[in-house]
Design a protein that fits this description.
6-stranded mixed sheet, alpha/beta, elongated, 2 domains, 24% strand, 10 strands, 8 helices
């Protein structure tokens, strides 16, 4: 169990880093790549030559005795939901931070980006079932509360079920939202649940990986324990064939995941723990901008 003072210190550090990054790099891009629910009515004004006749408001025109048109503006306010995997596999890390630490930093950056846009932000943590659900709200106090909730989360040693949070979200979130599903995706396929969620919302899969999950170092015999099942296996990492099989398996797993997400129509933001995740996020934003243009 983490000490409350330690939690508050971590929250403060994450707030400073995330807020600075958003101010410097991401606020404008975020606004351009995530759209509101559409167009909402703004006002009526008198018809002017060149206006689209399809926008004429015939009721107002009849009352006024002169043609008037409806004007609309884009509804920019979004609802942003972060679905965060807190299973025990996230506690693994071969770099200076674990996958879960990276998840929290990524989530904080997305929250502060949404805050700059005055969006509502909610959080759902899960493992094999939904652990906590905090409904979308506005404001900085809400963002800090959500970050505290993530920092205080204890990894859960149970298998991950990606369908559980998506099904729950579809039940409780009736309004269209931008949804970030953040996980290492070491779980059974949930393509149908993701496709269903993506039809209702704008779903983005944020896939977190550690370099040691891709490549084994040559260090002789090692014991590897599955953090969620507790299963332990002995591996001879000195053997080139073993290292090659491990690498091939990881490459195949990543390719299969990318293909499943593509079939479900879900955008993927891939983050590796040894990469600069800010560059990954900017690259992802540019990809979305190109598509919208």
């Amino acid at each position: 169990m983490q000490d409350v003072l330690d939690i508050l210190k971590k929250v403060q550090r994450i707030q400073i880093v995330a807020n600075r990054t958003v101010n410097d790099l991401l606020a404008g891009q975020y606004k351009s790549v995530f759209r509101g629910r559409g167009m909402e009515f703004d006002e009526v004004r008198e018809y002017q030559p060149g206006d689209d006749v399809r926008t004429i408001d015939w009721n107002v025109t009849a009352r006024a005795g002169a043609p008037f048109i409806k004007r609309f503006c884009e509804e920019r306010e979004l609802t942003v939901m972060l679905l965060v995997d807190v299973s025990a596999s996230g506690a693994f890390g071969s770099t200076e931070r674990s996958k879960l630490d990276l998840v929290i930093e990524m989530a904080a950056m997305l929250m502060f980006s949404a805050l700059k846009n005055n969006d509502k932000i909610g959080l759902l943590t899960f493992c094999d079932e939904v652990v906590d659900y905090l409904p979308p709200r506005k404001g900085k106090a809400n963002v800090l509360r959500l970050i505290r909730q993530l920092v205080a989360a204890e990894p859960i040693a149970r298998a991950t079920d990606l369908s559980a949070p998506l099904d729950y979200l579809n039940r409780v979130q009736k309004r269209r939202a931008v949804v970030f599903l953040i996980s290492d995706f070491q779980a059974p396929e949930a393509r149908h649940a993701m496709a269903a969620a993506n039809r209702r919302h704008d779903l983005v899969a944020v896939t977190i990986a550690d370099p040691r999950e891709q490549v084994l170092p040559d260090v002789g015999f090692v014991s590897l324990r599955d953090a969620e099942t507790g299963e332990v296996v002995e591996v001879d990492t000195h053997h080139p064939r073993v290292r090659q099989l491990f690498r091939d398996s990881a490459t195949g797993r990543d390719a299969a995941l990318a293909q499943r997400l593509k079939k479900a129509g879900v955008d993927q933001l891939a983050i590796n723990a040894d990469e600069d995740y800010q560059k990954c996020l900017r690259r992802f934003f540019r990809m979305r901008e190109r598509r919208f243009r």
